[in-house]
Specification:
With about 425 residues, this protein is α/β, with parallel strands linked by helices. It has 20 helices and 5 strands. The chain has 3 domains: about 180 residues, 2-Layer Sandwich (Nucleotidyltransferase, domain 5), CATH 3.30.420.10; about 90 residues, DNA polymerase, domain 1, CATH 1.10.150; about 80 residues, DNA polymerase, domain 1 (Orthogonal Bundle).
């Protein structure tokens, strides 16, 4: 679901209802903020601003907090780090003793967790909109539909790590939490009317558990380089791997987004020089590429050349494989040849699941994730016929298993 239209007839929310306070950037101001929020009542609206297109880290450079009776507070965690890699805002968390309201919480929870801010209960306005089957679930779109005003998003992609933060940026940040409480009420009423409030509670709890857990390191993270699928040789993949690792070390040390040092498209362009029969890639070869014409990408040319040289000198036995072993089912298009029984279950169950989601006014991926559906149908049917248990084992929530398990039972019965 994407937001594609804006109702320009609606009024624009130009500023917060309360006067904008100075940014909380020292212990005394933080103490005042904590006291005010502790005296407030009801749910707490939270948002963060990061600088991932500018900085290496995904940490929060501003945290917006609003509560009835306390108003809006803008906290600068970078100014409260006191020599540590991250600020410790656990004391602030202790004052926020009610449900936290976030929009697209999966984006904010990891950086909030880094500073000790983990809610005990969550309400995700974007996820609530999805469960209601609303066609547009961006914050601006939901506010338009629910509350009849427009939020301007002109500062969503600015460098929030810069200091001082301009006043107009701070107003923008404050407005992102100004109406979250009202939006929660509107969504809650509709979830209850649709009988989906329990679904929402289970989904919110799942998001909270998932996105406050330590991240699991990826195997060969360089394989996520955009455009890598155009490369056909193991030697070219080795060039990508070496460039990716070199770029990552540099970016981390400089706290810059890796793409600002060398974009993925240029990494792939350089790797494309490693064609069959090519023994060496030199400085002139790299500089001749269209993507290397920008001076900022040439700044670390010796590093890029060293990385390419290491990849080109690797013994064939040490080159990375074209792909990693799969930890799940193969593509569905190959099931008919490899597992005809699973293919038959898929052909029956998948359309039924899609139809059920439509009946429930629910995106099918929220009813059951595509990966879960593929895995459960690829595996042999449970010996005891308990498809609900099989779904639970794969991480499906109780509300999902109660709806999807009967569909799988019917599909298995049709092809027993």
């Amino acid at each position: 679901m994407t937001d594609t239209t804006v109702d320009e007839s609606l009024p624009i929310l130009a500023g917060p209802a309360d006067s904008l306070r100075p940014v909380v950037d020292d212990p005394a101001a933080l103490g005042e903020c904590i006291a005010a929020l502790r005296d407030g009542t009801g749910p707490i609206s939270i948002d963060t601003e990061r600088a991932q297109t500018f900085r290496y880290s995904a940490k929060a450079y501003l945290i917006q907090v609003r509560r009835e009776g306390a108003g809006t507070w803008l906290v600068d965690p970078a100014s409260l780090e006191n020599g540590s890699p991250r600020a410790d805002l656990a004391e602030l968390t202790a004052a926020l003793d009610d449900v936290w309201v976030l929009h697209a919480a999966s984006q904010d929870l990891p950086c909030l967790t880094e500073v000790g801010m983990i809610p005990s209960e969550l309400f995700d306005t974007e996820l609530a909109g999805r469960l209601l089957g609303l066609p547009r679930v961006g914050l601006g779109a939901l506010v338009e539909e629910a509350l009849g005003v427009r939020l301007l998003k002109e500062y969503s992609a600015v460098d929030w790590s810069s200091r001082p933060l301009p006043a107009e940026w701070l107003v923008y940040a404050a407005l992102d939490v100004e109406l979250l409480g009202d939006l929660k009420q509107w969504l809650t009423t509709r979830l209850e009317a649709a009988g989906k409030d329990e679904w929402a509670r289970q989904e919110f709890a799942h998001v909270l558990t998932t996105y406050t857990a330590p991240p699991v390191p990826r195997t060969d993270p360089w394989r996520r380089t955009s455009g890598i699928h155009h490369l056909r040789s193991e030697r070219a993949l080795a060039v990508v791997a070496e460039l990716w690792a070199t770029r990552d070390i540099l970016a981390r040390s400089m706290d810059k987004a890796p793409s600002r040092l060398l974009p993925d498209r240029v990494v792939v362009e350089i790797a494309g020089l490693a064609k069959p029969g090519v023994q060496k890639i030199g400085r002139a070869d790299v500089l001749s590429l269209p993507g290397m014409r920008r001076r900022q990408y040439q700044r670390h040319l010796p590093n890029w050349l060293d990385a390419v040289g290491r990849a080109m000198s690797l013994p064939r036995a040490d080159l990375p494989p074209r792909s990693l072993p799969q930890d799940g089912p193969p593509p569905v298009r190959s099931w008919e040849a490899r597992n005809p029984e699973a293919a038959a279950r898929w052909d029956t169950a998948r359309p039924a699941v899609v139809a059920l989601a439509a009946d429930l006014s629910l995106p099918v991926e929220n009813l059951i994730t595509p990966d879960t559906l593929r895995r459960v149908l690829w595996n042999d049917p449970p010996g005891d016929g308990d498809w609900a248990d099989a779904l639970r084992t794969l991480g499906a929530r109780p509300w999902q298993t109660s709806l999807v398990a009967p569909v799988l039972t019917a599909a298995a019965g049709d092809h027993a």
